[in-house]
Protein backbone atom coordinates (compact mmCIF):
# COMPACT_ATOMS: atom_id res chain seq x y z
CA UNK A 1 0.00 0.00 0.00
CA UNK A 2 1.13 3.57 -0.60
CA UNK A 3 0.48 6.64 1.50
CA UNK A 4 1.26 10.11 0.14
CA UNK A 5 1.29 13.32 2.16
CA UNK A 6 2.42 16.77 1.02
CA UNK A 7 3.38 19.45 3.57
CA UNK A 8 5.61 22.55 3.21
CA UNK A 9 7.16 21.40 -0.02
CA UNK A 10 8.15 18.00 1.40
CA UNK A 11 6.82 14.81 -0.04
CA UNK A 12 6.82 11.78 2.23
CA UNK A 13 6.17 8.44 0.64
CA UNK A 14 5.74 5.32 2.72
CA UNK A 15 5.56 2.00 0.96
CA UNK A 16 4.82 -1.18 2.84
CA UNK A 17 4.98 -4.20 0.59
CA UNK A 18 4.24 -7.82 1.48
CA UNK A 19 6.21 -10.19 -0.70
CA UNK A 20 6.65 -13.93 -0.31
CA UNK A 21 8.06 -14.48 3.18
CA UNK A 22 9.81 -11.08 3.09
CA UNK A 23 8.91 -7.58 4.21
CA UNK A 24 10.35 -4.48 2.66
CA UNK A 25 10.02 -1.04 4.15
CA UNK A 26 11.11 1.69 1.78
CA UNK A 27 11.30 5.30 2.81
CA UNK A 28 11.79 8.08 0.33
CA UNK A 29 12.36 11.68 1.22
CA UNK A 30 12.19 14.24 -1.56
CA UNK A 31 13.12 17.87 -0.94
CA UNK A 32 11.93 20.03 -3.83
CA UNK A 33 13.08 23.39 -2.39
CA UNK A 34 16.77 22.57 -2.70
CA UNK A 35 16.20 20.28 -5.71
CA UNK A 36 17.96 17.56 -3.78
CA UNK A 37 16.81 14.07 -4.48
CA UNK A 38 17.57 11.73 -1.54
CA UNK A 39 16.64 8.10 -1.39
CA UNK A 40 16.83 6.04 1.76
CA UNK A 41 15.70 2.48 1.75
CA UNK A 42 15.73 -0.09 4.52
CA UNK A 43 15.69 -3.69 3.60
CA UNK A 44 14.38 -6.09 6.28
CA UNK A 45 14.97 -9.71 5.51
CA UNK A 46 12.77 -11.98 7.62
CA UNK A 47 13.42 -15.72 7.21
CA UNK A 48 10.59 -18.13 8.12
CA UNK A 49 11.94 -21.05 6.10
CA UNK A 50 15.54 -21.14 4.90
CA UNK A 51 14.35 -23.70 2.38
CA UNK A 52 11.82 -21.30 0.81
CA UNK A 53 13.31 -17.86 1.60
CA UNK A 54 16.03 -17.29 -0.96
CA UNK A 55 15.01 -14.11 -2.69
CA UNK A 56 17.14 -10.96 -2.78
CA UNK A 57 15.92 -7.77 -4.44
CA UNK A 58 18.09 -4.74 -5.11
CA UNK A 59 16.30 -1.44 -5.64
CA UNK A 60 18.14 1.32 -7.47
CA UNK A 61 16.84 4.68 -8.66
CA UNK A 62 18.59 6.82 -11.24
CA UNK A 63 16.55 9.99 -11.36
CA UNK A 64 13.15 11.44 -10.67
CA UNK A 65 11.66 10.36 -14.00
CA UNK A 66 12.47 6.68 -13.76
CA UNK A 67 11.46 6.82 -10.08
CA UNK A 68 7.88 7.42 -11.21
CA UNK A 69 8.21 4.52 -13.60
CA UNK A 70 9.57 2.31 -10.82
CA UNK A 71 6.76 3.34 -8.51
CA UNK A 72 4.16 2.11 -10.97
CA UNK A 73 6.08 -1.14 -11.48
CA UNK A 74 6.46 -1.69 -7.74
CA UNK A 75 2.75 -1.19 -7.14
CA UNK A 76 2.07 -3.75 -9.87
CA UNK A 77 4.32 -6.27 -8.14
CA UNK A 78 2.64 -5.58 -4.82
CA UNK A 79 -0.76 -6.19 -6.40
CA UNK A 80 0.33 -9.51 -7.92
CA UNK A 81 1.84 -10.74 -4.65
CA UNK A 82 -1.23 -9.63 -2.73
CA UNK A 83 -3.55 -11.61 -4.99
CA UNK A 84 -1.30 -14.68 -4.96
CA UNK A 85 -0.86 -14.80 -1.18
CA UNK A 86 -4.11 -13.34 0.11
CA UNK A 87 -4.92 -16.61 1.89
CA UNK A 88 -1.57 -16.45 3.74
CA UNK A 89 -2.25 -13.21 5.59
CA UNK A 90 -3.83 -14.99 8.56
CA UNK A 91 -1.01 -17.50 8.81
CA UNK A 92 2.35 -15.95 8.04
CA UNK A 93 3.27 -14.56 11.40
CA UNK A 94 5.96 -15.37 13.90
CA UNK A 95 3.54 -16.43 16.62
CA UNK A 96 2.20 -19.39 14.65
CA UNK A 97 5.11 -20.96 12.80
CA UNK A 98 3.30 -24.28 12.44
CA UNK A 99 0.32 -22.65 10.71
CA UNK A 100 2.71 -20.89 8.33
CA UNK A 101 4.31 -24.25 7.56
CA UNK A 102 0.93 -25.80 6.76
CA UNK A 103 -0.01 -22.81 4.58
CA UNK A 104 3.21 -23.06 2.57
CA UNK A 105 2.75 -26.80 2.03
CA UNK A 106 -0.81 -26.20 0.85
CA UNK A 107 0.40 -23.53 -1.57
CA UNK A 108 2.97 -25.94 -3.02
CA UNK A 109 0.36 -28.68 -3.41
CA UNK A 110 -1.94 -26.28 -5.26
CA UNK A 111 0.71 -25.93 -7.97
CA UNK A 112 0.12 -29.56 -9.00
CA UNK A 113 3.85 -30.20 -9.20
CA UNK A 114 3.29 -33.96 -9.14
CA UNK A 115 1.41 -33.73 -12.43
CA UNK A 116 4.56 -32.36 -13.99
CA UNK A 117 5.42 -29.67 -16.47
CA UNK A 118 7.36 -29.69 -19.76
CA UNK A 119 11.03 -28.84 -19.60
CA UNK A 120 13.56 -28.54 -22.38
CA UNK A 121 16.65 -30.72 -21.94
CA UNK A 122 19.66 -30.97 -24.30
CA UNK A 123 18.28 -34.24 -25.71
CA UNK A 124 14.71 -33.01 -26.07
CA UNK A 125 11.54 -32.22 -24.12
CA UNK A 126 10.68 -34.09 -20.95
CA UNK A 127 8.11 -33.92 -18.20
CA UNK A 128 9.52 -32.93 -14.80
CA UNK A 129 7.51 -34.14 -11.82
CA UNK A 130 8.17 -33.06 -8.25
CA UNK A 131 6.92 -34.12 -4.86
CA UNK A 132 7.45 -33.06 -1.26
CA UNK A 133 9.78 -35.68 0.20
CA UNK A 134 11.66 -34.31 3.20
CA UNK A 135 12.34 -31.20 5.18
CA UNK A 136 15.91 -30.78 6.38
CA UNK A 137 16.27 -28.18 9.13
CA UNK A 138 17.60 -27.46 12.57
CA UNK A 139 15.89 -28.68 15.73
CA UNK A 140 14.23 -25.34 16.52
CA UNK A 141 12.40 -25.17 13.21
CA UNK A 142 11.32 -28.82 13.55
CA UNK A 143 9.97 -28.09 17.01
CA UNK A 144 8.13 -24.96 15.88
CA UNK A 145 6.69 -26.60 12.76
CA UNK A 146 5.39 -29.62 14.72
CA UNK A 147 4.31 -27.60 17.78
CA UNK A 148 6.55 -29.89 19.84
CA UNK A 149 7.28 -28.84 23.42
CA UNK A 150 10.81 -30.21 23.44
CA UNK A 151 12.56 -29.94 26.80
CA UNK A 152 9.51 -28.15 28.22
CA UNK A 153 7.40 -31.32 27.93
CA UNK A 154 7.47 -34.54 29.92
CA UNK A 155 7.84 -36.38 26.64
CA UNK A 156 10.72 -34.37 25.24
CA UNK A 157 11.39 -36.15 21.94
CA UNK A 158 8.91 -35.72 19.06
CA UNK A 159 10.04 -39.00 17.50
CA UNK A 160 9.81 -41.29 20.57
CA UNK A 161 6.83 -42.81 22.37
CA UNK A 162 8.65 -43.30 25.66
CA UNK A 163 11.45 -40.72 25.92
CA UNK A 164 10.93 -38.58 29.02
CA UNK A 165 12.95 -36.00 30.91
CA UNK A 166 11.88 -37.11 34.41
CA UNK A 167 12.31 -40.27 36.45
CA UNK A 168 8.86 -41.70 35.65
CA UNK A 169 10.60 -44.89 34.56
CA UNK A 170 10.66 -45.80 38.25
CA UNK A 171 6.90 -46.36 38.01
CA UNK A 172 6.77 -47.82 34.51
CA UNK A 173 9.81 -49.46 32.89
CA UNK A 174 8.32 -48.72 29.46
CA UNK A 175 9.60 -45.16 29.76
CA UNK A 176 13.25 -44.28 29.17
CA UNK A 177 14.88 -41.11 30.47
CA UNK A 178 16.65 -38.86 27.97
CA UNK A 179 20.00 -39.54 29.69
CA UNK A 180 19.90 -43.20 28.65
CA UNK A 181 22.39 -44.33 26.03
CA UNK A 182 20.37 -47.50 25.38
CA UNK A 183 18.84 -46.26 22.14
CA UNK A 184 17.29 -49.67 21.48
CA UNK A 185 15.14 -49.13 24.59
CA UNK A 186 13.36 -46.16 23.01
CA UNK A 187 10.23 -46.81 20.98
CA UNK A 188 9.71 -44.79 17.84
CA UNK A 189 6.27 -43.29 17.42
CA UNK A 190 4.74 -43.42 13.97
CA UNK A 191 3.01 -40.60 12.12
CA UNK A 192 -0.28 -42.36 12.83
CA UNK A 193 0.45 -42.38 16.58
CA UNK A 194 1.02 -38.62 16.55
CA UNK A 195 -2.05 -37.93 14.40
CA UNK A 196 -4.27 -40.02 16.69
CA UNK A 197 -3.04 -38.19 19.78
CA UNK A 198 -3.54 -34.77 18.20
CA UNK A 199 -6.99 -35.64 16.82
CA UNK A 200 -8.10 -36.84 20.25
CA UNK A 201 -6.73 -33.69 21.85
CA UNK A 202 -8.65 -31.58 19.32
CA UNK A 203 -11.88 -33.33 20.34
CA UNK A 204 -11.20 -32.83 24.05
CA UNK A 205 -9.83 -29.28 23.93
CA UNK A 206 -13.19 -27.40 23.82
CA UNK A 207 -14.25 -29.04 27.09
CA UNK A 208 -10.95 -28.65 28.95
CA UNK A 209 -9.90 -25.80 31.19
CA UNK A 210 -6.71 -23.98 30.35
CA UNK A 211 -4.88 -25.73 33.19
CA UNK A 212 -6.13 -29.15 32.12
CA UNK A 213 -5.15 -28.49 28.49
CA UNK A 214 -1.66 -27.46 29.58
CA UNK A 215 -1.27 -30.73 31.50
CA UNK A 216 -2.37 -32.69 28.44
CA UNK A 217 0.17 -30.84 26.29
CA UNK A 218 2.93 -31.52 28.81
CA UNK A 219 2.09 -35.23 28.85
CA UNK A 220 1.93 -35.77 25.09
CA UNK A 221 4.81 -33.41 24.24
CA UNK A 222 2.91 -31.32 21.67
CA UNK A 223 1.06 -28.03 21.90
CA UNK A 224 -2.57 -27.82 20.80
CA UNK A 225 -2.73 -25.59 17.72
CA UNK A 226 -6.00 -25.79 15.72
CA UNK A 227 -4.39 -24.18 12.67
CA UNK A 228 -1.07 -25.98 13.00
CA UNK A 229 0.51 -28.57 10.73
CA UNK A 230 -0.45 -31.61 12.82
CA UNK A 231 -4.14 -30.75 12.65
CA UNK A 232 -4.17 -29.85 8.97
CA UNK A 233 -5.26 -33.05 7.24
CA UNK A 234 -3.91 -32.18 3.81
CA UNK A 235 -0.59 -30.68 4.88
CA UNK A 236 0.30 -33.35 7.44
CA UNK A 237 -0.23 -36.14 4.92
CA UNK A 238 2.07 -34.37 2.47
CA UNK A 239 4.78 -33.68 5.06
CA UNK A 240 4.33 -35.93 8.12
CA UNK A 241 6.68 -35.79 11.13
CA UNK A 242 8.71 -38.73 9.82
CA UNK A 243 9.79 -36.58 6.85
CA UNK A 244 11.54 -34.02 9.05
CA UNK A 245 15.27 -34.66 8.92
CA UNK A 246 17.79 -33.43 11.48
CA UNK A 247 21.15 -32.14 10.28
CA UNK A 248 24.39 -32.95 12.04
CA UNK A 249 25.70 -29.38 11.77
CA UNK A 250 23.06 -28.06 14.17
CA UNK A 251 23.04 -31.19 16.32
CA UNK A 252 26.80 -31.04 16.89
CA UNK A 253 28.32 -27.73 15.89
CA UNK A 254 25.91 -24.81 15.76
CA UNK A 255 24.61 -24.54 19.32
CA UNK A 256 24.95 -28.29 19.54
CA UNK A 257 26.63 -31.14 21.42
CA UNK A 258 30.22 -30.08 20.65
CA UNK A 259 29.44 -26.45 21.40
CA UNK A 260 28.05 -27.26 24.87
CA UNK A 261 30.90 -29.56 25.84
CA UNK A 262 33.74 -27.34 24.60
CA UNK A 263 32.45 -24.36 26.59
CA UNK A 264 32.09 -26.39 29.78
CA UNK A 265 35.52 -27.95 29.33
CA UNK A 266 37.07 -24.55 28.62
CA UNK A 267 35.72 -23.29 31.95
CA UNK A 268 37.09 -26.31 33.81
CA UNK A 269 40.48 -26.01 32.12
CA UNK A 270 40.61 -22.26 32.84
CA UNK A 271 40.07 -22.99 36.53
CA UNK A 272 43.17 -25.22 36.59
CA UNK A 273 45.46 -22.42 35.36
CA UNK A 274 47.51 -24.87 33.28
CA UNK A 275 48.91 -23.87 29.88
CA UNK A 276 48.56 -20.80 27.72
CA UNK A 277 45.97 -21.42 25.02
CA UNK A 278 46.49 -18.10 23.23
CA UNK A 279 50.25 -18.65 22.98
CA UNK A 280 49.65 -22.17 21.69
CA UNK A 281 47.30 -20.93 18.95
CA UNK A 282 49.78 -18.23 17.87
CA UNK A 283 52.61 -20.69 17.17
CA UNK A 284 54.06 -20.65 13.67
CA UNK A 285 52.71 -23.98 12.46
CA UNK A 286 53.70 -25.77 9.31
CA UNK A 287 51.01 -28.08 8.01
CA UNK A 288 49.94 -29.67 4.75
CA UNK A 289 46.51 -28.09 5.01
CA UNK A 290 45.37 -24.47 4.87
CA UNK A 291 45.06 -23.46 8.53
CA UNK A 292 44.78 -19.69 8.26
CA UNK A 293 46.91 -17.12 9.98
CA UNK A 294 48.07 -17.12 13.59
CA UNK A 295 45.66 -14.26 14.24
CA UNK A 296 42.78 -16.34 12.89
CA UNK A 297 43.72 -19.32 15.06
CA UNK A 298 43.97 -17.03 18.06
CA UNK A 299 40.44 -15.80 17.49
CA UNK A 300 39.14 -19.36 17.58
CA UNK A 301 40.14 -19.64 21.23
CA UNK A 302 39.38 -16.08 22.30
CA UNK A 303 37.75 -15.96 25.71
CA UNK A 304 34.77 -14.05 24.27
CA UNK A 305 33.69 -17.28 22.53
CA UNK A 306 33.10 -18.91 25.92
CA UNK A 307 31.39 -16.11 27.82
CA UNK A 308 27.98 -14.50 27.92
CA UNK A 309 24.57 -15.99 28.44
CA UNK A 310 24.05 -19.63 27.62
CA UNK A 311 26.60 -22.40 27.45
CA UNK A 312 27.29 -22.42 23.73
CA UNK A 313 30.39 -21.56 21.69
CA UNK A 314 29.95 -18.08 20.23
CA UNK A 315 31.81 -18.69 16.95
CA UNK A 316 30.18 -20.26 13.91
CA UNK A 317 30.12 -23.96 13.11
CA UNK A 318 33.18 -23.88 10.83
CA UNK A 319 35.22 -22.13 13.53
CA UNK A 320 34.27 -24.76 16.09
CA UNK A 321 35.16 -27.58 13.70
CA UNK A 322 38.65 -26.10 13.43
CA UNK A 323 38.96 -25.34 17.13
CA UNK A 324 37.97 -28.77 18.48
CA UNK A 325 41.09 -30.74 17.36
CA UNK A 326 43.37 -27.83 18.36
CA UNK A 327 41.81 -27.58 21.81
CA UNK A 328 41.94 -31.33 22.30
CA UNK A 329 45.64 -31.49 21.39
CA UNK A 330 46.43 -28.51 23.60
CA UNK A 331 44.71 -30.06 26.62
CA UNK A 332 46.41 -33.41 26.08
CA UNK A 333 49.85 -31.81 26.02
CA UNK A 334 49.30 -29.34 28.86
CA UNK A 335 47.74 -31.97 31.14
CA UNK A 336 49.97 -34.89 30.21
CA UNK A 337 50.96 -37.03 33.19
CA UNK A 338 49.10 -34.87 35.72
CA UNK A 339 45.75 -36.65 35.91
CA UNK A 340 44.04 -33.27 35.52
CA UNK A 341 40.84 -33.31 33.44
CA UNK A 342 41.30 -37.02 32.84
CA UNK A 343 37.60 -37.89 32.52
CA UNK A 344 36.90 -34.74 30.50
CA UNK A 345 39.66 -35.55 28.01
CA UNK A 346 38.45 -39.11 27.65
CA UNK A 347 34.98 -37.78 26.82
CA UNK A 348 36.39 -35.22 24.39
CA UNK A 349 38.45 -37.93 22.73
CA UNK A 350 35.29 -39.85 21.84
CA UNK A 351 33.82 -36.63 20.47
CA UNK A 352 36.88 -36.27 18.21
CA UNK A 353 36.30 -39.79 16.92
CA UNK A 354 32.71 -38.84 16.14
CA UNK A 355 33.96 -35.81 14.22
CA UNK A 356 36.27 -37.97 12.12
CA UNK A 357 33.55 -40.56 11.52
CA UNK A 358 31.13 -37.87 10.34
CA UNK A 359 33.76 -36.64 7.86
CA UNK A 360 34.29 -40.19 6.65
CA UNK A 361 30.56 -40.69 6.11
CA UNK A 362 30.36 -37.42 4.24
CA UNK A 363 32.74 -38.77 1.59
CA UNK A 364 31.52 -42.39 1.56
CA UNK A 365 29.03 -43.41 -1.10
CA UNK A 366 27.70 -46.21 1.12
CA UNK A 367 26.47 -44.79 4.42
CA UNK A 368 27.28 -47.48 7.00
CA UNK A 369 26.44 -45.81 10.31
CA UNK A 370 27.02 -48.63 12.81
CA UNK A 371 30.37 -47.21 13.97
CA UNK A 372 28.93 -43.72 14.37
CA UNK A 373 26.01 -44.98 16.42
CA UNK A 374 28.28 -46.96 18.75
CA UNK A 375 30.53 -43.91 19.21
CA UNK A 376 27.50 -41.79 20.04
CA UNK A 377 26.39 -44.28 22.68
CA UNK A 378 29.88 -44.32 24.18
CA UNK A 379 30.01 -40.53 24.22
CA UNK A 380 26.54 -40.30 25.76
CA UNK A 381 27.58 -42.52 28.66
CA UNK A 382 30.80 -40.55 29.08
CA UNK A 383 28.95 -37.20 29.16
CA UNK A 384 26.62 -38.42 31.93
CA UNK A 385 29.55 -39.80 33.93
CA UNK A 386 31.66 -36.65 33.47
CA UNK A 387 29.20 -33.78 33.53
CA UNK A 388 26.09 -35.29 35.15
CA UNK A 389 22.49 -35.90 34.11
CA UNK A 390 21.58 -32.22 34.05
CA UNK A 391 24.10 -31.59 31.28
CA UNK A 392 22.16 -33.74 28.83
CA UNK A 393 20.05 -31.76 26.35
CA UNK A 394 17.54 -32.98 23.74
CA UNK A 395 20.21 -32.76 21.02
CA UNK A 396 22.26 -35.41 22.82
CA UNK A 397 19.34 -37.81 22.35
CA UNK A 398 18.13 -36.66 18.94
CA UNK A 399 21.48 -37.38 17.31
CA UNK A 400 20.59 -41.09 17.67
CA UNK A 401 17.56 -40.45 15.44
CA UNK A 402 19.70 -38.51 12.95
CA UNK A 403 21.85 -41.60 12.37
CA UNK A 404 18.77 -43.71 11.64
CA UNK A 405 17.55 -41.08 9.19
CA UNK A 406 20.85 -41.20 7.32
Topology:
Layout: E1 2-7, E2 10-19, E3 22-31, E4 36-44, H1 64-84, H2 97-109, E5 117-121, E6 124-128, E7 135-137, H3 139-146, E8 163-164, E9 176-177, H4 191-204, H5 210-220, H6 233-238, E10 244-246, H7 248-253, H8 257-272, H9 277-281, H10 294-300, H11 317-334, H12 342-363, H13 370-387, H14 394-405
Parallel strand pairs: 7-10, 8-9
Antiparallel strand pairs: 1-2, 2-3, 3-4, 5-6
Question: Could you characterize what this model shows?
Answer:
By secondary structure, the chain is α/β, with parallel strands linked by helices. It has 3 domains: 2-84, no CATH class; 130-246, no CATH class; 248-405, no CATH class. Helix content is 44%, strand content 14%. It contains 14 helices and 10 strands. The strands form 4 sheets. Strands 1-2-3-4 form a 4-stranded antiparallel sheet, with helices on one face. A two-stranded antiparallel ribbon has the order 5-6. Strand 2 (10-19) and strand 3 form a beta hairpin. Helix 11 (317-334) crosses helix 12 (342-363), helix 12 (342-363) packs antiparallel against helix 13 (370-387) and helix 13 runs antiparallel to helix 14 (394-405). The longest helix has 22 residues, at 342-363. The protein is globular and about 65 Å long.
Mean pLDDT: 77
Give the amount of beta strand, in percent. Answer: 5-15%
Count of structural domains: 3
Poorly predicted tracts of residues: 1-71, 82-94
Quaternary organisation: single chain
How many strand elements? 10
Q: Give the class from helix and strand content and strand pairing.
A: alpha/beta
* Order of strands in the sheet with most strands: 1-2-3-4
Shape verdict: globular
Helix content, binned percent? 40-55%
Can you count the helices?
14
Largest sheet: 4 strands, antiparallel
Amino acid sequence: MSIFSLSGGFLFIFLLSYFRWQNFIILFFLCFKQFIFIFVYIYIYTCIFLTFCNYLIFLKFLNFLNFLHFLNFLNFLIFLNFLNFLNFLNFLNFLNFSAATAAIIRAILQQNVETGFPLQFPDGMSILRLRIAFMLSDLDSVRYALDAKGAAGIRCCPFCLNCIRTDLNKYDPFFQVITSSNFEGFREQSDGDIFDVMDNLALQAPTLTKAALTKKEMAIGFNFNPSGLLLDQLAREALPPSCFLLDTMHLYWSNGVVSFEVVELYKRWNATGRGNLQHFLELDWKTSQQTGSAYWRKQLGHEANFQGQGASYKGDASNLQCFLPLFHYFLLRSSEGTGVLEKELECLGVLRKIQMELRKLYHDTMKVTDTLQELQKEHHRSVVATYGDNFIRPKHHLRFHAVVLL
